[in-house]
Amino acid sequence: MAHAPGSVSLRELQHAMLWSAASLACFTGMIAKQQLRIRWTAPLRELYGLSENQRLQGGPLFNPLVADEDRQHMRSACDSLITDGTSMNVIFHAQVNGAARRMRVIAERVGQSPRVVGFLQEYRQAATHEPQAPVSHHVWQSVGRLTLLDEAATAMAHELNQPLAAIATFAHAGERMLNLPDPPLPKVRQVFAEVSEQALRAGELIRQMRGLIKRHSPSKTSLSVADLIAQFVLMAEPIAKTHHIEFQIADELPTDHVLVDVAQINQVLMILFQNALDAVADEAVRRKTIAVTAQPRDGEVTLAVTDTGKGIAADVAARLFQPFYSTKENGTGLGLTSVRNILESYGSHLQYANLPEGGCRFWFSLRLSQGA
Fold this sequence. Notes:
Layout: H1 10-19, E1 24-32, E2 35-38, H2 42-48, H3 68-84, E3 88-96, E4 99-109, E5 115-122, H4 137-146, H5 149-178, H6 185-213, E6 221-224, H7 225-242, E7 246-249, E8 257-260, H8 262-280, E9 289-297, E10 300-307, H9 314-317, H10 335-344, E11 351-354, E12 360-369
Parallel strand pairs: 7-9
Antiparallel strand pairs: 1-2, 1-5, 3-4, 4-5, 6-8, 8-12, 9-10, 10-12, 11-12
Helix pairs in contact: 4-10, 5-6, 5-7, 7-8, 8-10
């Protein structure tokens, strides 16, 4: 896309977007019938000052609040994104609660797919004047979640079918028993106890999924490393099963405690797990294994995700943490950047190494706490 004299480049806009502390909402969209379709989400409604149930015709980019003089520019940018994959960056005006506000939207196509990932932000400063301050925590939580939603949601839907089917089967069996002339009450109690157990299992899966994707203020809790890993496994194991990957977790995990925001560390582990999953998905990889380990030492615990893929090539390693860079056709190039920034808030660093026997290991350390 050509830039007018005095304007900034797409990369500069991306930099300003990622490092700004202003209000920001991430979004995903789809290109269908030569139109960009973005659904209203809570963060998008918040930017426009809409209530929880409000929707406006035209979606977030073409609704009646967008100033008339900016609509043609918006339409041209969308058309370029749709037809030839040109990255979209538009600054526009919108009426929010009766006041004019400047907004900025940046969007990119995900490879050659019809999916789109982007950001909508209240535009408060000129991009060239924005400081290179550490990225705000909630921004990277939102960005990282976008890399997980499709895969995790599909796997969770598959995994939820099991307890839901079991609930239906046991409930039907219990109903038949109760309709007998002489109902076998001990067996009926056993059947409905199984219904209760399966319902709790389904509820826990849903709770974990909501915890991973829900935007929230960081809140740290002291819990054992074993419990932390168990919550991650609940999310990752169904995905591994779906892809027929051997998923290895130690039988005994450390009972030492860490003080963490569980959703944040789950997000970190899930992104590392997703990357490992992609690494072993290559047809040339015969032994498809992902292992998660936790080793306490010297007041810290080191969490590692190891795969049996081909490892990371030197040219890829040089750009591994660069935003928007990805070797995957449908990758956003935002996952590891999100991981790195979350870990830095804990005083930790993400490290990696190719293994002599093949594959790669990513690891990071967390300080142990005195929680009981």
